Amino acid sequence: MRLRSNILVNYAGQAYITLIGLVVVPVYVACLGEEAYGLIGFFAMLQAWFMLLDLGMTATLTREAARASGGATHPRIYRRLYDLLSSVSAGIALVAAGAIWLSSEAIAGRWLGEHTLEPGDVVFAVQVMAVAIGCRWLAGLYRGVLVGAERLALLNALNAAFATLRFLAVIATMEILGYSVRVFFAHQLAVALLEALWLRAVATKMVSALPAAHGEEPVPVSLLRSKFTFAMQVTFTSSVWVVVTQSDKLILSRLLSLSDYGLFSMATLLASGVIMLAVPITGALLPRLASMEAEGRSVELVDLYRQATRLVSVVAGAAMLTLVFFAEPVIYAWTGRTSYTRELYLTVMLYAFGNGCLNLSSLVFCIQYARGRVRMHVVGNALLLACLMPLVFWLVPRWGLVGAGVAWATVHLAYLLFWVTYTHAHLVRGLAMRWLVFDILVVLAPGLLGGLLLGAFGLFDGSRAATIVHVLLAGGAMLLLCYGGHRVSRRLEARVYARSEAWVAG
Q: How far is CA 323 from CA 57, 142, 263, 350, 444, in A?
C-alpha cells in the first residue's frame, strides 16, 4: 500500500509540474520571443550536462538511505556518507559554476547560433545560468535523501512549490519589472538559491535524527570501498545517460540559430511529457526494490518489477501513442499557431516514440540498481551511445530537427528490442520474452489499433477549442485502451503458458 501511495503522490506532484511547465511555454515565447526561449532551452540542456559531475553521489546516497531504512546499512555509515558527499558536491558545484561563468563570453559569442538579442543580455544570462545550475544540482543531491527514505509526499510538496516559483511567479516578476532576458534569469537564480538552501535544511534535519557518530570507531575502509565501487559504476551509467539524452541538443545548440533552437526545445519539451509520466513510477520503485533485495525477497521483487512495467506501458504508453498519432492537433492545441504545427509535428512524433522506448528500457536498470550490479547497464548504455552519436552527426546536418528525431527513435527502439532482452535473459531466467510480449506489447496493442482507427477520422479542426476537446478525448481513449490491454495481459499469459506446459507434458 505504501508503494501505491508513493506512486500516486509522485504522479500528483509530477503532473502539476509538467502541466505548468507546458502551459507557460507559449506565454514565454509570446512575451520574450523564440530567441529568448532558445536561451531557456539552452539553460535546461546545460543543467542536464551538469549531471556529469554527480559522480554517482546522488544515486549512492539514495540507495544507502533506502538500505538504512531496510536495516542493511548502519546509520553511522549513512550519516558519515551524507556529510562527505555534501562537502564534495559543494566543492564541485563551486568549481564548475565558476568555469561556466568565466566562459560566458565565449559561449555567448562563439557557441550559440545567430541571434538578434543584445550580446550583454546573453552573457548575463549565461553567467546566471552557471550559478543557478550549481544550486539546482546541489538541490538534487538533497532530494536523494528524501527519495531514499521514501518521504515522497514531503518531497513532491516542495517540488511543486519551487516549480510554481520557477514557472509561474516569474511571469508576475516580469509583469512588474519588464519582460526581458535579464529579469527572467535573475528570477531563476533567486529561486534556485532558495531551493538549494531549503532542501539542504530538510535533508540535514532528517539525517541528524539518526544516531550520532561521535565517539564511535571509524567506518571500515572495506565498506567505503564497496560504496565507492558502486558509485563509480553509477557514475559511468549516469554520464552515458546524460550524453545519450543530451548529445543531440548540444549539437543542435551549435548548428541552429537561437530562434530555431527555441523551436527544437519546444518540440522536445512536449515529447518529454512521455518520460515525465514514467518518472513517478521509477522514483517510487527504486528505493522499494533496494529494500526488497536487502531483505532477500527476490520473487516478490521480480513480480513488483513486472507490475511497474505494465503500469508504465499503460500511462506513459498512452501518452506516447497520443503524440505519435495526433501530434499535429496536440501542437495546435498547445500553442494555438498552425505554423508551429507544420514545423514541429514530425519531430514531436519521433521523439515521443523514442521516449516511450526509453521509458521501458530504463526499467531494467531498477533491478540492477537494487542488486548493486550495474555492469550490464553500463555496457548497454555505452553501446547505445556508440550507435546514437554517429547517427546524430550524420542525420542532423542533412535533415535538421527531423534527422535528430529519426536517430533518437531508431536507436532507442533497437536498444529495447535487443539489448534489454539480452539483459533480462541474464538477470532472471524466463523473464525476457514474457516481459516484452505480455508486459508491453499486449498492453499497448489495443491503443495502437485504436490510434490507427481514430487517426483515420482526423482530429485537426480550425477551432483551437474544438481541437483541445478532441485531443483530450483521444488521450483518454488511448489510456482506456491501454488499461484494457493491461487487464488482459496477465490472464492471456497464464493461458498461453498453461497450454504450453500441457503440450510439453503430453
A: 35, 34, 17, 9, 14
State the residue for C-alpha cell 539542504.
Answer: 200
- The H or E element containing residue 261 is helix 258-271
pLDDT tens column, 268-327: 889 988 988 887 777 777 777 777 777 777 788 888 888 889 999 999 999 999 999 999
Rg (CA), the chain: 23
Which amino acid would we find at residue 160?
A: A
* Closest residue by Cα to residue 36 from 351, 273, 268, 265: 265
Residue 155's H or E segment, with its range, is helix 152-163
Whether 287 contacts 147, CB under 8 Å: yes
- Residues 493, 495, 498, 499, Cα dihedral to 10°: -120
Task: Encode 272-283: b = buried (16+ Cβ within 10 Å), e = exposed.
Answer: bbbbbbbbbbbb
Torsion of CA 454, 458, 462, 468, to 10 degrees: 20
Per-residue pLDDT tens digits for 408-460: 999 999 999 999 988 888 877 778 888 898 899 999 999 999 988 887 766 55
Q: Residue 38: which of 46, 166, 48 has the closest Cα?
A: 46
Q: What is the pLDDT of residue 498?
A: 60
**Do residues 224 and 37 make contact, with C-beta atoms less than 8 angstroms apart?**
no
Residue 192's nearest CA partner among 137, 148, 240 is 137
